[in-house]
Amino acid sequence: MSELPLSATADAALQAAPATKARGYWATVGRRITRDKVSMACALVLLLIFLSAVLAPWLGLEDPYKGSMIRRLRHIGTAGYPLGTDELGRDMLARLIYGGRLSLVIGILPVILAFCIGTSLGLVAGYVGGKLNTAIMRTIDVFYAFPSVLLAIAISGALGAGILNSIVSLTVVFVPQITRVAESVTTGVRNMDFVEAARASGAGPFTIMRVHILGNVLGAIFVYATSLISVSMILAAGLSFLGLGTKPPEPEWGLMLNTLRTAIYVNPWVAALPGAMIFAVSICFNLLSDGLRSAMDIRN
Amino acid sequence: MLAYIARRIVYVIPIVISVALVCFLLVHITPGDPLVAVLPADASQELAAQLRAAYGFDRPLPVQFGLWLLRALHGDLGNSIATGRPVLAEVMRAVSNTVTLAVAAAIIGFTMGILLGLIAGYFRETWIDKVATSFAIAGVSVPHYWLGMVLVIIFSVQLNWLPAVGAGPNGSNSWAWDWAHLKYLVLPAITTSVIPMGIVTRTVRALTGDILSQDFVEALRAKGLYETGVFRHVIKNAAPTALAVMGLQLGYMLGGSILIETVFSWPGSGFLLNSAIFQRDLPLLQGTILILALFFVFLNLLVDIAQAAIDPRIKRG
After folding, report:
1. Does this complex have an ipTM over 0.90?
2. Interface test mutation site (partner B, options A150, A260, A267, max chain B beta carbons within 10 A)
3. Are the beta carbons of B31 and A168 closer than 8 angstroms?
C-alpha cells in the first residue's frame, strides 16, 4: 500500500532535483528565510535597535548621563521627553537607545565566545574520541549539574560585580551547552565515508577537522547558538538587574530596570520601559532563530 | 529495575563530588579576603590570623576541601559569617519557601503547557496552533523579572488587588496555607510559571505532532478506535519525554528563583543567595549553591528513574 505514494514522491523529488541543484545550500537557506515574513520583521526590528545603538551619538539625543532634580520621573509623552525621564531626571529615550550598546554587547558577546570555545572543544572531543572525549564530556557534565541561572549568578557573585565578570560567567554557562551539541554532531559526521576518504588520502587530523568536518557541523551549532542569544540577553540584563553586572551611571537595560524599581508607584510605565526593550530583542532573536532552523531543515 | 536504579545512583556519586568541588572552589576564585565581612577595618594582624584559623582558612586548599566535604557529609556547612547561625538551617528554611513557590508555579505552568501543547499539536498549522505557539514563544522570551514588575504595576499599584512584595502579612517569613498568605503567592507563582509554560508547550506540541503523524495512529483510527482512545495512546507515548522536560524545569525553578525572589522579596533560597553575595558571606554562598545544585542533581536522578519506570525501553538503552 505504502509503496506507491512513496515511489511517486521519490520520482517527483528526482524531477525537481535539477532545478534546486543549481543553487547552493546556503543560497537556498537564504532564499527561504527572506521569504519568511516573521523572520524578516524580526530582523528589521533588530537591525533598527542595532543601528540606533551604534549611531546613538549622531541621533541628536539628550545627554544620557545628564540628570536634573527638577525634572525627575516625567511621564511618557512629556514635551521634550517623549519617553519621560528616569529617577534622576535623565531622558529615557536617550538612555534606552544608548543602553542598547552595553546591553547588546553583554548579551551577545558571551554567546559568540562560547560558540568559538564550545565548537573547538566539541569538535576535538567528537573527532578524537576515546579518553580525550571522556575527559572533556565528563567535565562538561559537571556544569550540567547546575541550573544555568544559578551557575551564572554563582560565578558572578564569587567574582564580584562588573561587566567583564558577567561576560565571563555567562560564557562559562554556555560553553558546556554548545560543546555538547558540537560533540554530538561531530560524532555523527566523523564516521562518514568522505572523512574516511580524506584520511585515506593522507590528510592530517587538523586538516580533516577544519576542511571536512567543520563545514558540515557548523550550521547546526550556529543555529543552536542563535537560540541561546535570547537566554543570554535575559540573563545578562538579569545579572545587571541584581547589581552584578553594569555599574551606575552607565545606561544598560537591566540596571535601568533595577534603579527604576523604586519608581513603580510614581511612574510605573516609565519604570517598565527598559524591560520592554529586553523583551523585544529577546523575542526577535528567538523568532529569528526558529525561522533559521526551519529554513535550514531541507526535509520540508 | 533495581539494577537500573543502582547504576544511576553510582553514576551520580562522581557528579555530586565534582559539584561539591565547584562550590568549594567558587569561594577561592573570589578576589579579596573572605573574612572582610566580619573583620573590623582596624583589626590587628593577630586577630585576623585568629579568625582565619577559626574558620580554617589558614590550611592548604586540598585539606580545606577534604575537611569541608567531611563536615558537609555530616550536615555541617559551617556558620554564616554575617549572622553566625548554622548555614544548613538557614538554607533549608529558605529552600522550603522556594519549594512552595516552585510547586505552585509548576502546577500553573505545567497544566497550561500541557493543555496548550496538546491543542497546538492537534490543530497544527491552524490559527489555534499559532496562538498557542505565540504564547509559548512569549513565555520563553520574556525577561521574567520584568514580567514580575509589570504584574506588580497592574495588580498591586493600579488595581490594588494583590500585595506587591513579601510572603505573608506583616512581613511574615513562614508560609501557611490560608488566603492571607496565598494572596502573596499569586503574582510570584504566575511570574515563575511563564518559562516552564512556554517550554512545556513547545515540547508537548512537537511530541503530539510527531506521534499523530506515525503509522500506528493511522492503524488505530483505521481499526475504528474512538478519538478518545487515540488520545490515550498519544498521552502514553508523550509522557516519558514530557516528564523529563518537566522535571528539568522544576529544577530550574528551584535553582533559578533568585531574580523573581528579588523582585517580590520572597524569603526563599534565591533571596538568601542574593544577600550572601552582597554581604560577601562566603560560607552561606557556598552552602546555598551546594544545596540547590544537589537538589537539581537528585531531581534529575528521580526523573531518570521515573522515566524508566513508565518506559521500559529506557532501561535497556
Report:
1. no
2. A150
3. no
